[in-house]
Amino acid sequence: MIKVGIVGGTGYTGVELLRLLAQHPEVEVEAITSRSEAGMRVGDMYPNLRGHYDTLAFSEPDPRRLGACDAVFFATPHGVAHALAGELLAQGTRVIDLSADFRLRDAEVWAEWYGQPHGAPALLDEAVYGLPEMHRERIRRARLIAVPGCYPTAVQLGLLPLLEAGLIDTEHVIADCKSGVTGAGRGAKVPSLLAEASESMKAYGAGGHRHLPEIRQGLGDAAGGAVGLTFVPHLTPMIRGIHATLYGRLKSEPGDLQALFEQRFADEPFVDVMPAGSHPETRSVKGANVCRLAVHRPAGGDTVVVLSVIDNLVKGASGQAVQNLNIMFGFAENAGLAAPALMP
Amino acid sequence: MIKVGIVGGTGYTGVELLRLLAQHPEVEVEAITSRSEAGMRVGDMYPNLRGHYDTLAFSEPDPRRLGACDAVFFATPHGVAHALAGELLAQGTRVIDLSADFRLRDAEVWAEWYGQPHGAPALLDEAVYGLPEMHRERIRRARLIAVPGCYPTAVQLGLLPLLEAGLIDTEHVIADCKSGVTGAGRGAKVPSLLAEASESMKAYGAGGHRHLPEIRQGLGDAAGGAVGLTFVPHLTPMIRGIHATLYGRLKSEPGDLQALFEQRFADEPFVDVMPAGSHPETRSVKGANVCRLAVHRPAGGDTVVVLSVIDNLVKGASGQAVQNLNIMFGFAENAGLAAPALMP
Amino acid sequence: MIKVGIVGGTGYTGVELLRLLAQHPEVEVEAITSRSEAGMRVGDMYPNLRGHYDTLAFSEPDPRRLGACDAVFFATPHGVAHALAGELLAQGTRVIDLSADFRLRDAEVWAEWYGQPHGAPALLDEAVYGLPEMHRERIRRARLIAVPGCYPTAVQLGLLPLLEAGLIDTEHVIADCKSGVTGAGRGAKVPSLLAEASESMKAYGAGGHRHLPEIRQGLGDAAGGAVGLTFVPHLTPMIRGIHATLYGRLKSEPGDLQALFEQRFADEPFVDVMPAGSHPETRSVKGANVCRLAVHRPAGGDTVVVLSVIDNLVKGASGQAVQNLNIMFGFAENAGLAAPALMP
Amino acid sequence: MIKVGIVGGTGYTGVELLRLLAQHPEVEVEAITSRSEAGMRVGDMYPNLRGHYDTLAFSEPDPRRLGACDAVFFATPHGVAHALAGELLAQGTRVIDLSADFRLRDAEVWAEWYGQPHGAPALLDEAVYGLPEMHRERIRRARLIAVPGCYPTAVQLGLLPLLEAGLIDTEHVIADCKSGVTGAGRGAKVPSLLAEASESMKAYGAGGHRHLPEIRQGLGDAAGGAVGLTFVPHLTPMIRGIHATLYGRLKSEPGDLQALFEQRFADEPFVDVMPAGSHPETRSVKGANVCRLAVHRPAGGDTVVVLSVIDNLVKGASGQAVQNLNIMFGFAENAGLAAPALMP
């Protein structure tokens, strides 16, 4: 049994951590912080947690109390983990950051996309990008994890087999992504109102989205060189889920794409390559830490289409964070993550 | 570890049983039957179950194979359990019927509402109405359980404290109920299409709904006499959830209604009386075997309003069925039912 | 052709006025005000209006410019019309107020429910409650209209026939109402987010809602005496629509209720009494200025159930405002209001 | 005033024709046919039409009665118009077919994709593809119109400027399309249930969809040669709307793309090129006969992204059919099509 803390627990990734950890046999939540809601019990804010955390209340962030935890999750806006991570690491606490603070290796690129200087560049060297399907061994030894973003998870898992095998033109990859509205967080913004966002579909950020450099970095690692990516995210009228539709141009006859994908993920507990011809639905992963993939080659042509679905709050955030924790602490990788998706 | 069978597993209550039992530490699903889908693996029909039941496939109903199970769930249309239950009981298998087949004690009333003769009147005497909050001790010893309907569960739990205490006029009770569309089952009917049922609200069955005699029977048991109930169900554009709004007229000063409710359900693991002034949301029980209640007395007048929410597929069907199983077999009552609701 | 102004045009009732008036053959929108969005063209805020009002932009409220209009609509939070209405009336401009400012005849009651003193009590005497089905003749001659609220419209139209005929017990009337989320306005509030409000149902204001005194006042007028009403509104996961389910207790044999309703509304262009046994759907009035009603008497008992549906933004707000305008200015009552509902 | 008939009026495109024609000043609906619902009044099937077509009822298809109309719309499954169109044309009735029967010029290709021989190849020569933005002059003189499909309309309008100007590589065009569920029609199919299709997103037909040859034919006309298109449609949890996200690779510096689009559609009443940087929402065209477009060139690279939205039932079907009628009969092109979209 280890003790964990959660910094910034009032948002959707915070409450999702609580939901998952309530079922985790090896973890006790010692502290959850929120400046705005300090003193409120978690069950009063999130009634689904009534009966699960009856004494746990939001508290002011206290580095000493957090430092007494074995691990601390950051479920905060960008910039917050920069300030606190070093202090916690110094106390021997491992840090699992769900924000974007440590995802980009290059502090300059980070500063450019986030509009402020990077607050902890000295930590970048040891931060490990927490995509277990690429970096499981490094995660095992890590003290500081940057949990991948939701779009980056769906896109990278769908493209890894093709890029690692060198099958597609790396200059012109397209990721057309559709996300449920929890991807925009719990902030009270007019465009996120049910009256505005339901019964509608729209693209956003077509000119450039903050997940773009993160995805490019990851795809570049897989490809062994720069990848030219066009990434268009869309807002979809549903609560959870990302559907990434990925297009690549084959450079030559690729062989058996289905087998390539199945072999690449054969040992992965949370990647499910569906049978040939499948079209995964986002609801098939609702609440579950799973990425389901299908690979198509329409009319046998030179375009390959990969369909990749995740729950943005689970495999795209809190579930992947718990998966990283499990790897770091030697727990069963599916501890707390074993429940099937909620369907229908 | 016990072995269970599921008859009629392709509908929503069937797949929900599989979802819940996947997390049950004491249960193995030995067989799941479907005439129409025999041979298909459950993960091919319900991809959320991929990785959880990889060898389980739908099979033709085989009384011998089912009779070798410790318990069998019926997740079937009405009439099916009538035919099979006796044969299974004779083999020593306990039967938990999620359909309406054994809910009404009076075979004549059943025949009137369901438009066909009752197929197993001899079993009615020993069938136990599986609402643990009323009949836990009888459930413990039962061989045959009639799992309550979804509306009946929400309505009865909300009215029990008032009726048992004799506080309200039993001649004029009103239950205005709102249900998500899974309450209508998985049949392909035009009114259940997304294009028809979303962005709309409507009542149905205002002249009389099959759950009416069941609710009246249960309320009558609690009140110790006949209860005059007006029950109007409504279709709500959501997948899961029932919200029952219950109106009763107080016969005299009722004392502390909040305390009455809290005391009535103090020992109930799956009934949550919320703080005074609360308005429970159906999403706070999505996927969870919980009924959340709040009691109001507007402007201190003589009308009491109870708000009662459940997930129609869990506490209103499959979760309650598992709860009954747990009680019958002496398992922890929350085995397989411990996960918090999925929120948001 | 008359000229109209709209004060406070950025909310949902404002844009809905623009949508309806775009089709009105006798009306030109001269000015639309918004302090926060002054200078922005309406089509930039509401792209559905692109091509319909290409030169119209939001402007600072200017009493002189508004006073040059034949009529001015207020689509503002409460309190705003109090301050401006008198000034406009003095200039000969007629005022149609969609807010609550002039709905209650008693300034004290208003002050109690809205938490501030009434700002224009001297105008209350001449304000006419703009429910054409009750006050058409007075509307014709009115200078100042208080457009009824959304819930009050649905509830009053459903109960008028029963109360006017003296058929039901006036002490115990119940209105269980379900509203789409636009009823909560366009404010950026967390509970109105798609991620919070969809896939869920909840009551709110069970202890008392601001529409309660307005409904009671109107029902009292119809009944010729005080009416005891329990009113519980619910939030429903849809954009538009109100479904009011109304329960009354019959005092004696009521005769033919269907005929009573049909006769009461025989000459009403915007009230549709559906055939006996019907269950009106809110989507059947989406975008249309119609109230559809059905009356039921379950099992021939002493409880009468009326189902009443409107679009909260049309017959419950902006459409009804235009209907009032049409009556006041002698236009065809359905001018600008002739389009069928959008279904599906 | 002309008389029109509608064959196959019970589906979504049929009811949408009735909704639009109710507002058309020059058209009277003389007959609407349905074998399955003959005798039922349209208002009984579609209550939104109550009060608009009170005497109109579905009737058995009667070629003589239809032949007495000035124009007949087919809102039927494929194959039906093949059989009847010739007979109506021979009587001097013009035919506007919303089905796929006359969209492909090559009867062989049609037979391949629709799995049956083409039933009226002799009519293909005179059939005009009813996309006014390409073929307005031919439509004016046409007797037989093939109304474009929903996806083809959104995709072609978005790509026409680029292809006509020869700016993009025609071998590798990608159309990632998202559609609301009415695109699948009103058939009672399990995947279209609210319980199945809401809160989820999925691709379908990635291996080949019937709209593919139609789109290729139209793009080829614009490009003056074959176009290699990858087309992946997706099902989105909303009632109406198509969002097409279109990707092309620029062959050279394209000049001012925004100006190109604005000029191409400057005289088009139903194509709205939004300001640079815009992201059109499908809800901005809900119920309206409009296509809104935006063109992006992310990071100034060689990929151009066009965002194109329509209402699949209006500009993607029934509205476009009425627009064709208006052109054929010399009515104002926006007759019956003038109302703004319903937003929110």
TrEMBL record, chains A, B, C, D:
Signal peptide region: none
Superkingdom of source: Bacteria
Known pathway: Amino-acid biosynthesis; L-arginine biosynthesis; N(2)-acetyl-L-ornithine from L-glutamate: step 3/4
GO terms of molecular function: N-acetyl-gamma-glutamyl-phosphate reductase activity
Subcellular location: Cytoplasm
Active-site annotation: C150
Domain Semialdehyde dehydrogenase NAD-binding span(s) in chain numbering: 3-142
InterPro entries the UniProt entry points to: AGPR, AGPR_AS, AGPR_dimerisation_dom, AGPR_type-1, NAD(P)-bd_dom_sf, Semialdehyde_DH_NAD-bd
EC number: 1.2.1.38
Pfam families named in the record: Semialdhyde_dh, Semialdhyde_dhC_1
CDD domains: AGPR_1_C, AGPR_1_N
Major localization listed first in the record, in broad terms: cytoplasm
Catalytic activity: N-acetyl-L-glutamate 5-semialdehyde + phosphate + NADP(+) = N-acetyl-L-glutamyl 5-phosphate + NADPH + H(+)
SMART domains with a match to the protein in the record: Semialdhyde_dh
Keywords, comma-separated and alphabetical: Amino-acid biosynthesis, Arginine biosynthesis, Cytoplasm, NADP, Oxidoreductase
Similarity-based family: Belongs to the NAGSA dehydrogenase family. Type 1 subfamily.
HAMAP family: ArgC_type1 (MF_00150)
NCBIfam families xref list: argC
Stored PANTHER family: N-ACETYL-GAMMA-GLUTAMYL-PHOSPHATE REDUCTASE, CHLOROPLASTIC-RELATED (PTHR32338:SF10), N-ACETYL-GAMMA-GLUTAMYL-PHOSPHATE REDUCTASE, CHLOROPLASTIC-RELATED-RELATED (PTHR32338)
Function, in words: Catalyzes the NADPH-dependent reduction of N-acetyl-5-glutamyl phosphate to yield N-acetyl-L-glutamate 5-semialdehyde.
Protein name as annotated: N-acetyl-gamma-glutamyl-phosphate reductase
Species this protein is from: Billgrantia sulfidoxydans
